[in-house]
TrEMBL record:
InterPro entries to which the protein is assigned, alphabetical: AB_hydrolase_fold, PLipase/COase/thioEstase
Record-given protein name: Phospholipase/carboxylesterase/thioesterase domain-containing protein
Domain Phospholipase/carboxylesterase/thioesterase, residue spans: 25-249
One Gene Ontology term of the molecular function aspect: hydrolase activity
Organism from which the protein derives: Papaver atlanticum
Length: 257
């Protein structure tokens, strides 16, 4: 069962601004706890809707943590406030990057995972803007630091991005190729990207380009799945792919009944 946990006063210390995060929803594992994954919702959504979907997946060994983003003015909506992991002017890798907002949300994810037991594998995934934040977290993990230079200390085991894009794509190559350690971490981190060819919110070409950039910068353990006719939403076929991939990557026990 899931329960609600308020994250009071959870402003990030990695940035100048303080971001107040909403309610966090946790889905407890129904079987042996082997992995914990933070799952990030899309623009204007909240953690509750995804916690209900994730609770019904045949993955009894995973604990899901579904936080809710802060409400903030968003440029793509003309400054109108809504729940968002960072400010965004367009839903693609071509717009300006809100490094401060991205760092704050990546730090929030890392903070949620920091209290998990050492023998539990941890990961991050998300949909749309949540996927963008998850992929940004993957690049922070590889570099061992946030965009502002502060250390990133979480050792991610898996990263999933559904219908999303890669922030800071333009500068990623120099950051990864300039460090042997970053290149090694990038090569060993499993990533799953899924995108619908009928997506009219985050265009399929942005998901495809993100996968290409990640692969070319050293994220060799990357799987990119496409779905004909799929719009900006998820379908059972896609979630089946997520379940199979997680079961394999995390070596989960008893995930299929």
């Amino acid at each position: 069962m899931s329960y609600n946990r308020a994250t009071a006063g959870s402003g990030s210390r990695t940035t100048g601004r303080s971001f107040e995060y909403g309610r966090t929803h946790v889905v407890r594992p129904k079987g042996k706890h082997q992995a914990t994954i933070v799952w990030l919702h899309g623009l204007g959504d909240n953690g509750s809707s995804w916690s209900q979907l994730l609770e019904n997946l045949p993955l009894p060994n995973i604990k899901w943590i579904c936080p809710t983003a802060p409400s903030r003015p968003v440029a793509i909506f003309g400054g109108f406030p809504c729940t968002a992991w960072f400010d965004v002017g367009e839903l693609s890798e071509d717009g300006p990057d809100d490094i401060e907002g991205l760092d704050a949300s990546a730090a929030h994810v890392a903070n949620l995972l920091s209290t998990e037991p050492n023998d539990i594998k941890v990961g991050v995934g998300g949909f749309s803007m949540g996927a963008a934040t998850a992929l940004y977290s993957a690049t922070c993990c590889a570099q061992g630091k946030y965009g502002n230079g502060n250390r990133y200390t979480i050792d991610l085991s898996v990263v999933i991005g559904l219908s999303g894009w890669l922030p800071c794509a333009r500068s990623l190559r120099n950051k990864i190729e300039g460090s042997h350690e970053a290149a090694r971490r990038a090569a060993s981190l499993p990533l799953l990207l899924c995108h619908g060819k009928g997506d009219d919110v985050v265009q399929y070409t942005h998901g495809e380009k993100s996968a290409t950039v990640l692969s070319s910068t050293g994220f060799r353990n990357l799987t990119f799945r496409t779905y004909n006719g799929l719009g900006h939403y998820t379908v059972p076929q896609e979630m089946d792919e997520v379940c199979s991939w997680l079961t394999l990557c995390l070596n989960l026990e008893g995930s299929r009944s």
